[in-house]
Structure prediction request, 241 residues.
Amino acid sequence: MLASSYFSVEQEESAVRAFLGWSPAALVLTSRFHSPGTEKMIAEADIPIVETWDYVPERAPLQVGFSHYEVGVSAARYLHGKGYRRIAFVQNSAVGDFSALERRDGFTATLTELGVQPWVFVPDADRAPFEAGKQAMEALMGHAITPDAIFFANDNLAAGGLLAGQRAGLSIPQDCAVLGFGDYPFAPMLLPSLSTLQPPALEIGVLAATRVLQSLGVLATDEEVKRLNLLHCQLIEREST
Prediction:
């Protein structure tokens, strides 16, 4: 059984309640950010539960994912290493995307440590991603002092920003570099192709399924392997940076 909550903890809680009513053998969730009601159901459920996408070792449920904070750190060091100094971050327009806020925190903290004062732009809440990226690019490039690089919370936002910049006559990356997150299928097909950070989506799925089967006794458990649940994103450098 599958359900999508699109960053809504209320919708997730409703789905979890419905799923648990069917007495599943196991439950896999995306992200560790839940409503109090979902947290209570997780704590009381007598089945294997795996949280994917994030990784915070102190969480009680088994987690398979990566550190979004470290993604932000990597993005900041990459752009700074390329020589960019007027650098902005654009948040997701989906207000429940708390993982993106962790990427923001890692990004801004690292730039501050490097002596760069980062800018943060917050699009209108729940604006469609491409439109939110467009809004961000137009607003940031409308200032007297403009950024020379922008890290967008995801590739949809980045694509909207890149296209809006080109429409306004900007040259990407000469006037402003664009970096995304997600490595969506369209990223290499944009012109210029989109630099981005690629999450280990396939590895997360395989490892999460393996952990479920191990917890159910279907697969043998190697204690050394069982601890290897922290994965890492890969920076994909293309033309936009």
